[in-house]
Recover the amino acids of this structure.
């Protein structure tokens, strides 16, 4: 039966850090980290920015739905705007219209990143339409 012999090198996983490397190669990990770290920070910032934009979009959707339901029940314009304001992001623009059959609510907001002017502002909006309840006049 043949025997299996394992050879180990001084640069394998179990070897001490830096063993078998020249002095010039030892600094390459630091240089690679110095290059990769800023790229990682940019990716993280972009991810956080995307999450903030999606969060604002979801708030606009919730606010538009709440406003459309309130308008469909025949509540006053002030009550509809109050229902929207409870769910909408800060500084949101609200447009409420209704005709003989439906009430429409549109909520829009411009989302600016908190960490400066490097990332662009994004406009998000949502609209909701609800049929008016029987007996409600526009």
């Amino acid at each position: 039966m043949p025997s299996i012999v394992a050879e180990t090198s001084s640069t394998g996983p179990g070897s001490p850090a830096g063993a078998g490397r020249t002095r010039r190669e030892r600094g390459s990990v630091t240089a690679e980290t110095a290059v990769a770290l800023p790229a990682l920070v940019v990716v993280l910032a972009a991810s956080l920015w995307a999450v903030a934009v999606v969060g604002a979009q979801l708030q606009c959707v919730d606010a538009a739905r709440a406003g459309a339901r309130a308008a469909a029940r025949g509540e006053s314009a002030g009550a509809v705007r109050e229902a929207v304001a409870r769910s909408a992001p800060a500084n949101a623009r609200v447009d409420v219209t209704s005709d003989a059959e439906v009430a429409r609510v549109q909520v829009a907001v411009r989302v600016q990143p908190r960490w400066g002017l490097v990332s662009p502002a994004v406009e998000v909006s949502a609209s909701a339409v609800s049929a008016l309840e029987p007996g409600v006049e526009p």
User: Anything to note?
Assistant: The beta strands are 93-98, 102-111, 122-131. The chain has one domain: 28-131. The chain has a mean pLDDT of 83.
